Amino acid sequence: MSLRTLLPGSSANVSLVVQSDGTLEVHKTCSHDGIDENGRPWLERQNRFLETSIAVQETDIFVKPLRFTAEDETFSIDFPYLASQTLAQLAMAGMGGSLLLDTTSGLLGEMALNVWPKTATEAPRDFIEKAHFDRIDRRVAIARAAVPELGAIIDSSEIVLNGRTLLGFHFVMEQLRSHPAIDTISPTLIGEIHGDLNLHNILCCVGPSAKRPVALIDPRGVHLLSDFAKTRDFEPGDYAYELSKLKFSLSAFSEIRHGFLELQGQGTDFKISFKHHSGSETMRQADAGFFDALSTNAEFMKWVEMVEPAGFDALRKRVLLGEAANFVADAACALGRDTVHEVIPLFLIGLDKLNSVLAILNDTISEHKLDDWFARSEEQDTTTGILAVQQSLLRGRAAAPLWDVLEIAVPSDQVAVMQGLLETLRGKCFPLHTNVYTSSTSNSKLEFPCLVIHGLQKAHSPTEAILLGVTHANAFFKASGVSDSVKSALRIISVQATGDDSGSFGRQGSKLLAPGPWGASPLGLVLLTAQQLRFTKGGRWILDGTTFFVLSRKLEPLTSDVCVLTCPPAAEDISNPAQMAMREALTKCRVQAKPTQSSPEKPSIMPSGAVFLSTEVTTALTQSAKQGTQARGDVLTDIILAAKLDKGSWIRLYGAMGWAGDVDAAWSAAQKLVSVVAAEAELVSGGDKVAMYRFGSLEEYKSLVERAKSDPDMNSLAFLAATLAWREQWAIGE
Question: For residue 225, what pLDDT is reported?
């Protein structure tokens, strides 16, 4: 069986092939010449490099081919499949700038030891002329022929880009070609290099079969030097070209590949901007810290001292020149990716950077950054929530955790199932070293942070399940030797995976425990989104187990003992009877939102499924439950809304929410609970653009599955889980 997938930006057709023995192979094939030989000739040269490179033979850095096939028109290579994600995927999900730089810097240090010295020879004096300037001219001619409007831009004496006046292409190229500093920064040696070392060609390997943290794919197959234009041999190169490719993918190329670029203007006046996304901070931090990270890498700097007579600064200037050349040259490559809309912006960014390189060579500036072209994080969208997950999930082991306990209540006959599922999520949705306990068994060596599973003996309403969970947790902590003072200060996130038979979650077929067909179970996504929650005191954030969410603003510090996290109503809420009833109830309650909420006068808010109760409140509630109070609804209806609504309104809400049983008894029980809670409820806004995901009903669960692969927030969460798994496996950044 063959599953064919065209990789975006690939010069070949790439298929994942299942062999008869169940193993997977990656099949790459190409039958066209491509842009500037970026087709079959590229694939042949790539195979030639992988066959003859000493670095490939002596190290495991490169993914080595299994076989190749050469036919009249088609050339193919088969590779082993590696369980992995690309470094670009993890970076764009928001892996953090430090972790990204640790990874790239470590890789470059390894290549300085084991790749670049292989077969190194003296570099020709005109290397920069041929490798950069000639290639720029060649690629610009290709792009100009395909995009006629580019011609006027190329021939203009000046271009205004984002308010900055740039020298025209011909003039800046003439100045660079004749600049005396070019000889000073030229390489002294050329040798074996990967040649296309961008983030998309670096695999982050995970799983039991992984032998190393990163592996390289797609070494360069397109000639840089005209000397190699008519051959299928791989050509030696300048190691600084590796750095320039990485810098190129950090500074803007990856965001262009992901569709975040916007171009405005015409003639000779243009504006380029980039949308904010979940990886924006990661990419900006890594781009800004790129050279500093290299300068502190001992293995890398030993190589630099050997081959750079003019020092690190000369290398930095050569890398920036290569980065600029990559943008201009890639304008032609965009034609091969069928992204003709990228041609002009790639050229313009390259022109901007060529102007900057000229200024750097003239000692006018150190480097021109594009930071103000990128939208800022304060622009409210769900990247705020993704960033909060990243900051919590990827904290170093020495850093203080943002929560102490994550507890999950399940029917007692599902405890083993939950334990097994949590083991599959260990190191993905919570750090690898986090212990998992069952509250039925005390542990004298209890360590925080931890996960605790409560097994409930029978079906309970959501409120009852929460209060029973509190009782189980208190008994477990006491038996494990936790003092009362420590216990009262614990910051607990509580997830419920059980409810009575009338609720959306019964004892059977809990969708929270269902495997996720796209790589993450609903429980996994709930555990990830729980990382957004913050505490200012001991207590519990209670999640209802039927939803998860991505916030679009940072949570304000909690000031009340009872808080409800709110979000705007989703489009599907408008016609949903239960959600309509809930919105009406909130309006009648007139519960005050914090003054920092963007539109406090508008009642168009909904509960997100998260409620905070302080330790004092949960203690009072459990005491009431011990006296026989049997709540029938959930925490929101029984404790918060029952304090504000009249009996008739509350009963209508109770019915609309689908709660079963004696409504008068339910109202009476709710009033007993309310009577022990003195605190006023506070609404805490999650932002105006919260992404809400529901999976309580079968229809909602199916909808969740259908949107999973195309939803950017769900993909960011999945890749953050993959980032944690990869970092934990290899202890990177620790």
Answer: 65
Cα gap 661→187, rounded to integer Å = 81
User: Residue 71 above 80 pLDDT?
Assistant: yes
Helix (H) or strand (E) holding 107: helix 97-114
| Residue carrying structure tokens 């993905």 | 428
384 within domain boundaries: no
Q: Does residue 213 share a domain with residue 327?
A: yes
Sign of the Cα torsion 57, 63, 65, 66 reads positive
Higher pLDDT, 259 or 521: 259
Q: Where are the beta strands (DSSP E) in 284-412?
A: 405-411
Contact 219, 62 (CB under 8 A): yes
219 and 143 part of one domain: yes
How far is 95 from 526, CA to CA, in rounded Å? 19
Question: Alpha helices, DSSP H only, in 337-379?
Answer: 343-361
Residues constituting the chain: 734
400: Cβ contacts below 8 Å, ≥ 6 apart? none
Q: What is the pLDDT of residue 389?
A: 93
Query: 3-state DSSP call for residue 2?
Result: strand
pLDDT in the model for residue 142: 95
- DSSP state for residue 639 in the 8-state scheme: I
Crossing angle of helices 169-177 and 135-146, in 10° steps, is 170
pLDDT on residue 233: 62
Non-local (6+) Cβ contacts of 13 within 8 A are: 4, 6, 28, 29, 30
What is the residue-wise DSSP string for 230-298? T--S---B-HHHHHHHHHHIIIIIHHHHTT-EEEEEETTEEEEEE---TTHHHHHHHHHTHHHHHHT-H
Are 494 and 541 a contacting pair, CB within 8 Å? Answer: yes
Instruction: Report the SS3 class of residue 25.
Output: strand
Find the angle CA(31)-CA(37)-CA(40) to the nearest 5 degrees.
25
Whole-prediction pTM: 0.89
Check residue 607 and give its pLDDT.
Answer: 85
pLDDT above 70 as % of the chain: 90
**One domain, residues 474 and 557:** yes
Give the burial class of 228: count Cβ atoms within 10 A of its Cβ; 0-12 exposed, 13-18 middle, 19 or more buried.
Answer: middle
- Least confident piece of the model among 87-91, 566-570, 670-674, 725-729: 566-570
Q: Nearest-CA neighbor of 21 among 105, 65, 80, 73? A: 80
| Domain of 605, in residue numbers | 398-571+590-628+684-730
Q: Are residues 149 and 271 in the same domain?
A: yes
- Cβ burial of 536 (10 Å; 0-12, 13-18, 19+) is middle
